[in-house]
Structures are given as C-alpha cells and as structure tokens.
C-alpha cells in the first residue's frame, strides 16, 4: 500500500480545461471518493492517476515515486471499470490470472493466488465460466477480484456500482467497504452518487467544472460545506438555498426577503453576514433543520405548502420562499395539505450563509 | 374490461395475419433468389461432367446420360499441355491472392486500429482519402496504373497485380476493420495496460483475438477480390506462364470454343477455393465475441 499525492494537476484538451489545479493528498490505507456531477473532471483525474492519459502539468506521486511519465503497467495500480472490462474471450480464471501472467509469476503461484482471490470473493465455482455467462453482480466481483489478486499499491475504482440494480448496489457497497477495512487498501473511488461517497469514503473530494471544491471527511463536508455547490450537491434532498438581502440594525443582523418577511439572525450569524462583501446573501438550510409549524410562532416565516411527499418514515414538504424551493422533512403523522398555510422556523445553529457573488460560505471569524 | 381485452386480442391477430402475408412474400423472394444464384452453378457442374458432344445437344440433356470425369482428368493431368496450363494458372492465382491477402491484413490491421483509437493531425482527411478510391470505377485507373507499373518495371510481374489489388482492397478492409475496433470497448485495453501489459501486448493479447472475425472477413474479402479479378491481370500480364485463372480460363475458352465441359470443369475448380474458405471460416462471421465483455 502507498499514499498518493496530486500536486497542481492540470489536464487540458485544446482550450478546454478538464482538470484545473487539483491538489490532493491520499494517505496510506485511506478510502477517498472523487465525487461530482458528470463532466466535473473526476474520471479524468482518475485516468491521470492510472496513466491512461498524460498530464498537462503538475505531478502525481504514488508511494515515493513521481509517476507522471510511467506507463500504467509500471505504476503498481489496479483499476475497476464501470463496465467491468472483463476480457470476454477468457474464462474467469484466466481473467484473474492475466495480471499475474503479465508479471511473469510462476504458474503454481498464479494458481494459488487466483484460487485465494476466488475464495475471498466466493466465486470458486465460477472459475471456468466466461464473463458473458455471469450476472452483473458476479461480473462486478470478478472485476474486483482481478484488481485485488495482484496486491497493488493503489486501487482505482471508476463508478464500479453504477451498472448494478439498486438492491445489488447497496449490497456491493457494503462489500467494497468491508474489503477496504479488511485490506487496509488505498482506494480512489470515482462516483457521481454523493450517497456512495458519504457512506463509503474516509474523505471525499467534491469536484465541479474541473476544480476541487472541498476535500474533507463526509461529516465535515455535510456539516460545513465550503460553498453553495457543495451545499446543494451533498445531501438528499438537496439543501435549500434562499437568496435574501442582509442588513444590520443595532448590532443585530436581519435577512429580508423581497416577499416582505424578515428573519432576525443570532449574534454569530449576524457576525458572518457583517463580514460579507455584499448585501446579497444566500441562506442555506437542510430539510431536517427547518421546523414546520401549523400556526404562527415568533421567528417563524409564513409560507404555503406546495407539494407533500410521504416516503413512509418521513414526509417531505416543499414550499416556495423568495422564489426558491425549500424542502422540509416532517414526521409522517403531521398532516399537511398542499396549499396549506404553514410557518417555517430555521435552526440558527445549523443554518448556512453564503456570499451570493463568490458563492463561498460565510465564516464568523 | 371484457371489451378492452376483446379489441386487444382482435387487433393482435389482425397484425399477425399481415406479418404472415409479408413473410410468405419474403419466402417466395428468397426461393427465387436461391434459384437465380444456384441454377447457373448447378448447370456448370452438370455440364462439366458431360461429354463434349452431349454438352452441345439440343434439346439439352438435363441430366447427363453418361457422366464422365474426363474433363477434370484432363485439367489436372500435369502430363498434357492443357493440364500443365491450368495447374500453372491455378498456382499463379493462388500466389497472387495469398500475397494480396497477407499484405492487406498486415497493413489494414494497424491502419484500422490507428483510425479507431488515435486522434492525429489529418485523421479525418486521411480516412476520407482512403475511401476516395472506392468512389471511382476500377477501369479509370487502368491506364494510369499501367503507365506507373511500366515506369517502375513491374509490368509482367505478379507484383504489379498484388500492388494493384492492395490499392483496391485496402480501403474497404480498413473501413471494415475500423468498425470492428470501434465496437471493442477501449476499457479492455486500458484494463490490460493497468494489469501489466504494454500497449502492444494489450493489442496483441486482448484486442487481436476479439477482432479475429473482422480480420477473417477482411482476409476473405481480399482473397476473393484478388482471385476473381480479370481486367488488370489481362492488361498487366502478357506471358502465358504468368497468367492467373480468370485470364487463363478466358484464353482457354477462346482457344477451345467447343470444349464446354472442359471450360465448366475449370470454372468449377476455380470456385472451389473460395467456397472452401467460406465453409471453413464462416463460423467466425457469426461468432459474437464481444458479447458479455461489458454491460450494455
């Protein structure tokens, strides 16, 4: 196992910058998820680490070697592809043996390692099959087996679960997590599904437009999103972002909506707003931090329920505030009807404030 | 509820009937096409086992009264002059066609792979240029190519034919193979390269076996093209001992106008290698090797 360092990594295609000054340190044995919407540069970053494409500038360090100019085969990595990329003409056994044959290991050692990997992944009975005779989950497992049979320094995984059906995906998710815990492997995992990143990774690197937006533990990213993109990307349903006008009166801060209502801020939040360069701020609140009242309460803001979505253990209510959709989760025994008048109370401790121009989170000090 | 299911089933059977009508039409067409292509061949075979006199009879003998293999014996007998000529033509054709096939595969495989996988300056222009040749009838190039061959001293050599057949066969071979490579997911090579293969090994060990059907199709295409070609062979070669089968048989025909069984026997034997090739290799055409490689 080894650590991986990306230093000011840049990849351009003509004038298009796919990856922009990305710097990341992935510790030995760490599970890092690269997450972002499609086209954000996460797969490009992974391919750069794999050596499948060449870097425009910057450095990639695996272990203690700068690997920029090394062939993929010399980087001591293994990769699991979204479409598994199993060799269709080879049996499962030969698929697993291929990386070892390429390294010219003796036959009996190859046999031992292949059977060991097959045992670990519980597919000893599948060794003679061809990939096309396997189910999607089994193919996925062979792909994983082909990666781990060689004991590489770093595992690269490119959306390995996105071709599986929902149920299998959840199952394989915990299997890969378990696999990481058992092997203490260094894993770089690319996904567009923030839920996978949050549930599996030690740290997640949120990317957008080729830029690294935030790199931290899922809990930190969830609790302290660095900017509006991260805030709206991580968490489901997405954080509600409400554009408002800030003003300060008698040392206290107030957010005013074009709709006429206003919200008094706690001293700490007032301090954040005071440090902003613009009067236009965006209030961010997750569904679970907004309290829904069926009658007027001091500090609560009047709104109209727009849609009501019961999911079983929680009911999501959507409302419009200042032209933005606000998600609120309520207990399923709270009956709310569409178009019903409701009052929303924000949790001052857990609300987020963003500068509407820079889109960065406002900090108190 | 019952009305709904009733209309449904009626609509269904009506659609079925119409498909049946089309299907019968299709079958009739296929039978017609089969007879259209097979009857001349059958007639060729039947004539080749008749005696010279029986072949000229009118009304024709539908089935030979006295089937004989005399014509085949004559053609395959190295002792008599007809046999010597035929065997030499056959051998010449085999050499020219095989050389064309091998060379076109050797050139087309890397070319098609490059067109499929790499972006390089002038890629689109080159690919179009490759196809440009096929937009003109072959005869247009007859005189220019003859002048060219004379200039480089290749007239009256088999090399002139191999070179010419390559220029005609390669564009389609490259086009055909590029399609095959396009359908092989690039991730397979990437996986191989990460698994420890060089780019060349990934190509040889993973991509080549998967493109076997394409390579075989290409090879057969080149072979048949070279085997059947007439006009260039007729123009470029004048020495009797160099002629290929199509020209040789034509000469044979003009010298022995009356020997229809001999002509038909020669034609039949000329079609044998092509048929054998097809029978041996046809399974590669239908083998869908990439199935199961990736999840679609």
CATH hierarchy class name of the largest domain in chain B: Mainly Alpha
Counting DSSP E segments of at least 2 residues, the number of strands of chain A comes to 20
Largest interface: A-B, 34 and 24 residues
Number of domains of chain A: 2
The CATH homologous superfamily of the largest domain in chain A is named P-loop containing nucleotide triphosphate hydrolases
Contiguous helical run count of chain A:
9
Oligomer: heterodimer
SS class of chain A: alpha+beta
Low-confidence stretches of chain A: none
Order of helices and strands of chain B: HHHHHHHHHHHHH
- Going by CATH, what is the homologous superfamily of the largest domain in chain B? MetI-like
**Class by SSE composition of chain B:** mainly alpha
Uncertain runs of chain B: 1-11, 288-296
What would the principal axes of the Cα set say about the shape of chain A?
A: elongated
- Number of self-contained structural domains of chain B: 2
Major beta sheet, strand line-up of chain A: 6-7-8-3-9-10
In one word, what is the shape of chain B? globular
């Amino acid at each position: 196992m080894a650590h991986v360092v990306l230093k000011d990594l840049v990849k351009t295609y003509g004038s298009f910058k796919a990856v922009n000054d990305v710097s990341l340190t992935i510790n030995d044995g760490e599970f890092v998820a690269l997450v972002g919407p499609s086209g954000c540069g996460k797969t490009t970053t992974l391919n750069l680490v794999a050596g499948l494409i060449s870097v425009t500038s910057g450095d990639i360090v695996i272990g203690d070697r700068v690997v920029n100019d090394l062939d993929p085969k010399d980087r001591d990595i293994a990769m699991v592809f979204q479409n598994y990329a199993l060799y269709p003409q080879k049996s499962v056994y030969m698929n697993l043996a291929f990386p070892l044959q390429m390294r010219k290991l003796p036959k009996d050692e190859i046999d031992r390692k292949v059977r060991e990997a097959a045992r670990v992944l519980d597919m000893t009975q599948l060794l003679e099959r061809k990939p096309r005779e396997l189910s999607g989950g089994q193919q996925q497992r062979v792909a994983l087996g082909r990666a781990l049979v060689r004991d590489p320094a770093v595992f690269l995984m490119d959306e390995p679960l996105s071709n599986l059906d929902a149920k299998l995906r959840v199952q394989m998710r915990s299997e890969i997590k378990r696999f990481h815990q058992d092997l203490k492997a260094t894993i770089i995992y690319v996904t567009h599904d923030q839920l996978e990143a949050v549930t599996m990774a030690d740290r997640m690197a949120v990317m957008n437009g080729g830029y690294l937006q935030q790199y931290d533990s899922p809990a930190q990213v969830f609790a302290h999103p660095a900017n509006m993109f991260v805030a709206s990307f991580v968490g489901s349903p997405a954080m509600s972002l409400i554009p408002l006008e800030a003003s300060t009166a008698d040392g206290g801060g107030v957010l005013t909506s074009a709709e006429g209502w206003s919200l008094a801020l706690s001293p700490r939040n007032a301090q954040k707003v005071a440090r902003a360069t613009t009067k236009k701020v965006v209030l961010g609140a997750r569904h679970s931090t907004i309290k829904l009242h069926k009658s007027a309460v001091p500090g609560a803001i009047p709104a109209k329920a727009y849609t009501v979505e019961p999911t079983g253990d929680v009911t999501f209510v959507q409302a419009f505030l200042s032209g933005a959709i606000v998600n609120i989760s309520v207990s399923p025994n709270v009956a709310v009807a569409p178009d019903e008048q409701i009052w929303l109370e924000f949790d001052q401790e857990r609300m987020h404030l963003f500068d509407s121009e820079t889109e960065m989170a406002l900090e108190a000090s | 509820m019952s009305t709904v299911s009733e209309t449904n089933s009626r609509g269904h059977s009506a659609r079925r009937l119409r498909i049946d009508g089309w299907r019968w039409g299709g079958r009739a067409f296929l039978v017609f096409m089969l007879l259209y292509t097979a009857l001349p061949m059958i007639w060729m075979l039947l004539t080749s086992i008749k005696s010279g006199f029986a072949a000229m009879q009118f009304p024709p003998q539908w089935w030979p009264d006295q089937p004989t293999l005399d014509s085949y014996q004559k053609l395959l007998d190295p002792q008599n002059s007809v046999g010597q000529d035929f065997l030499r033509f056959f051998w010449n054709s085999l050499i020219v066609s095989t050389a064309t096939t091998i060379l076109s595969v050797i050139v087309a495989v890397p070319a098609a792979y490059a067109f499929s996988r790499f972006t390089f300056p002038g890629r689109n222009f080159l690919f179009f240029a490759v196809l440009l040749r096929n937009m003109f009838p072959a005869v247009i190039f007859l005189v220019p190519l003859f002048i060219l061959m004379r200039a480089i001293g290749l007239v009256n050599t088999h090399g002139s034919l191999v070179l010419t057949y390559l220029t005609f066969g390669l564009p389609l071979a490259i086009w055909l193979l590029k399609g095959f490579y396009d359908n092989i997911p690039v991730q397979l090579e990437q996986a191989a390269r990460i698994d420890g293969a060089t780019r060349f090994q990934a190509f040889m060990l993973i991509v080549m076996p998967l493109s076997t059907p394409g390579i075989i199709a290409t090879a057969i295409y080149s072979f048949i093209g070279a085997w059947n070609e007439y006009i260039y062979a007729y123009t470029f070669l004048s020495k009797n001992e160099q002629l290929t089968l199509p020209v040789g048989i034509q000469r044979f025909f003009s010298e022995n106008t009356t020997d229809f069984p001999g002509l038909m026997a020669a034609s039949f034997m000329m079609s044998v290698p092509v048929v054998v090739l097809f029978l041996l290799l046809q399974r590669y055409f239908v083998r869908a090797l990439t199935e199961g490689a990736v999840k679609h």
